[in-house]
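User: I'm writing a tutorial on reading structure tokens. Could you give me a worked example: one chain, its sequence, then its tokens, then a sentence or two explaining what the tokens reveal?
Assistant: Sure. Here is the example chain.
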Amino acid sequence: MPAQPGIRRAIAQQYHRYHELAGVALVAITAHFGYGVLNQSAIPPYVEASGWTAQIGGIYAAWLVAETIAKTPMGAIADAVGMRLVYVVASTVGAISAFLWTITHVLGVIFAIRVADGFASAGAWTVTVLAMGGTVRSGARTGAMGLFTVTYLFALAFAPLIGGYANDVTGSKLTSFYVASIFLAAAAVLALFLVPVRPHMEESSQPGDTTLRRSLFGEIWLGIKTFPDYIAIAFVAFFSFGTLIPIVKLFAMQVLLMTETQYGLLVLPVAGIAVIAAIFAGKISGALGKAHTVHTGIALSAAAMWFVPFIHIAWQFGVLAALIGIGFAIGMPSWLALVSDLSRPEVRGSVIGAVGTGQGVGVLLGVLLGGYLYSIKPITIFGLTIAAHYAQFWISAITLSVCFLLTVIFVREATSGHRI
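And here are its predicted structure tokens:
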């Protein structure tokens, strides 16, 4: 018997939604490859070869300051003018910025380029989370955010290998910048066709409800004041990871004595394991609940981080990094899903941007501290000597543990209503 019109309509609607989600995921993974090659592979060895190692924390901080400032406004702008335009412009700016690294070698100009990078990545990150969460209903949102995490981790797995191999083969520290620029330009082109203009509004109290519409700055403040607990948690968690961003590759090359290609080969299975964990994040969330999944992920990452300061061998570092990655891959999708669940679609961009701002401030301060700690000599505290290049791992372990306590206190399952 032929399918009823209502059934056919429902099937068509589901196909359209998941087809749209897959399109956004393709754009996201392309952009993540670009930013992964740029930030994880291209910049650290180039900065070291240029004699700017002491400034590496500041170089990353310039990017993070701009990204932090821009995330909340980018979310509000995407609410107002549409996601597609924001993403296309952001990715185009990112592609140009990556290319500019190859034609200027003045430190002051590099800082200016990093600011442009920050604005671009703020727009891309905010719109990606908003778009992927907005293509599905609440019940499927953890799975959608799991897919977002997969795109990030998949790029994380291959970006260092791609960029490092390109540099090693060509004998130039500039080649990976060209690679990053190509990926970001491709993301801009794909976004023209695959990023929707607006998220679906089926969760609004009324279709097209605009009662919560405010001025740009009103929406920014709305997101900040409604989610101070989630913003605080984002700050602490990403402060912890921020202390490691500028120095992980340098640590592998200088302390573990790895080449760029060897580092890429180490990251590949580590990120691959995290990708597998992210794929199952939706099922884990369904079994434990979103809040308990967040608690579990943070606890695993914190526990593994406590062991990192005691290792001096590459494979041990890889095992612990894999455990930290699994915790991140399990917890992050449920975290993003909870943030989306707690906000109405009309202002979701502002909310995601506000939480992203807390995340960005944490990363920024973490990068500054991590870069500083990496450059200091061994220090002794209460009779305990901390070896050079290991202090930032102790700080990361402590702050991740604090983050776990905060999630236990503040992160609860979302109710049927929204905060705003």
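What the tokens reveal: The CA atoms of residues 161 and 264 lie 4 Å apart. The domain at 22-198+217-410 is CATH 1.20.1250.20 (Growth Hormone; Chain: A;).
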